Amino acid sequence: PFVLAAARTQRKDPLDGLRYYTGGWNISSEHYWASVGFSAAPVFAAAGVWFAVFGAALFLAGCCYCCCPSRSTSYSRAALVVSLLLLLAFTAAAAIGCAILYDGQGRFHGSTAATVDYVVKQSGDTVDNLRAFSGFLEAAKAAGVGPVSLPDDLKGRIDGVVRRVSSASDELAARTASNSAKIRDALDTIRKILIVLAAGMLILAFAGLVFSACGLESLVYVLVFLGWILVAATFVMCGTFLLLHK
């Protein structure tokens, strides 16, 4: 065994007293996954904080709305203009954020897919080398000088090595095909979810602008609730992106 990419996997390991993990790429190690998960933990924590704090704010606002009698309030022209400008600014910011999210998911999918292709290619080369090595061993059994050939017990040992090497190469090829298919399915699923999130937030942003300008207060409240859920989901997907990227 040897360490793969030790310099690129130096992340704090919560299972080892937050000391840096130095085992390299080793997906069979719980310390590897703990260090990967810890690198994405701040974003998942931000999702929890957002969900709790904004949810509490929505609950308090709902209580105040239900408990306090509504009073008709007249606003000045300046207040209306400022409100409209803020609506336009926040809608533009949401649109820019959705565009960044869409572009980012495309680049993430492309880089991760390229990494998977590289690993699959290296695995394929290893399989080819193992099978070529088996061929060399088979040819070695026929080695000899004149009438003198290898003893039968040595030929039997060579046959045993050939069987083990062939079995290892077949298992490596099968596992590579299975794992790469699972990883590609997961990446495609995440890509679709991110695209739906970006499109959904963009639609909600423009719908909120239209509903606010038209004074449809109840629909605006519904959109605020949906936006609360979508932003939390975006934080979760961001954490998932970091986890897979690391």
Automatic annotation (TrEMBL):
Keyword field contains Zinc: no
Keywords, alphabetical: Membrane, Transmembrane, Transmembrane helix
Gene Ontology CC annotation, any one: plasmodesma
UniProt cross-references to InterPro entries, sorted A to Z: DDB_G0292058-like
Transmembrane segments: 43-68, 80-102, 193-212, 219-244
Presence of keyword Cytoplasm: no
Protein name: Uncharacterized protein
Native source species: Aegilops tauschii subsp. strangulata
Organism lineage: Eukaryota, Viridiplantae, Streptophyta, Embryophyta, Tracheophyta
